[in-house]
Amino acid sequence: MRPGILVQHGALPQRATDAVRCDVTGIIGFIPPPWPEGATAGDFFTMELRRTEELEGHRYADLVDATSRRAVAAFFENGGDTCVLFGVCLPEGDAVSAEPDGPLGPLLHHLRCEDDIALLACPALAWSRVDVARDGTVRTTADPVIDLLLAHCRQMTNRFLVIDAPRGLHGAHLRRWTAALRARNLDDRAFGALYYPWLQAGDEVLPPSGSVCGIYARTESEHGVHGVTWPPANQRIAAVTHTEVPLEWEEAGELGDAAINPIVVQPGRGVVIWGARTLSSDPRWVHINSRRAVGLIAEQLRRDNEWAVFEVNDPTLWKVVERDVLVRLDQFWDAGLIAGPRSRAEYSVQCDGGTNPASVRERGELNVSILLRPVGTIERIHIDLRLGAGRS
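-> structure tokens emitted (392 positions)
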């Protein structure tokens, strides 16, 4: 080879990307005073757990409230794989402050850096005080924190909040409280789901969120890496004997219509989750698996395209990004996350001069337009059974 400069054209380098998990669960627990020496309100610690025994042997386990510890056990009893328990130092009192600089602020700041946590629960909130006003308005001291966690899940895109019905709320009061919760969180309510009633293991009574998160995780692991395609419903809850309040089928239907996922007892099967609805009333986001599938897709595309930040914003980059995104969506369609009878029938990608005019480029932005229809859920099957001699 002669001395000089050799110019060689080759393919773009392969970009390794992390596959998004949707089964890792974060459980927020509370540490009441007295706290360890030197601790102040808002301080927290984390425990990443793979089995219940790891919690039982942890030196800080007994500091966390009993409800949260029980939820961790219920998570693993129902097939969960990885749980992160957060213990937050909270001052005495009924209400938990939801102010940005309150005791939950440092934990939420930390959670924004935890990409892999896709499910969130705070079972201790279910014990908060319930107030029923003379005009019928129902509030709990946990309402501001639930609102804060729903907003956090929306900001994170691929995070979903599992909510317990407050202790002692039933019937019309529960539906009224749920309606108010939905009305306060119009933009965030698709990122959470509510479950009722509480569960019992013999005489022990426990909120359902720990068991439900375990079933979310188990459903995903049973169906592979993209298990969020399947709704976490029509699933038996393990390690419980019955529900605190038995539901008739008509009651379960009314709860479902109110965006409350009922838990029922079925003869021969045991305790079963019989709902797969978010808190949203938007038809696009009514079903848990639709919302979570889109969250997974958005998070995976974000990770896939981080490499493009600070690249030259020109048509060559647009073509590469558009191609990469389309290939990833092809994989999602093949895995069943996107609807459509054939590939690219229900999704499309555009990244060109139309989405990136001069005004956008001058702001240092790259816009990619994606249209897709996520997988849906069957809630009812109608069988038309007719008796007769034959076809008419």
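The mean pLDDT is 92.
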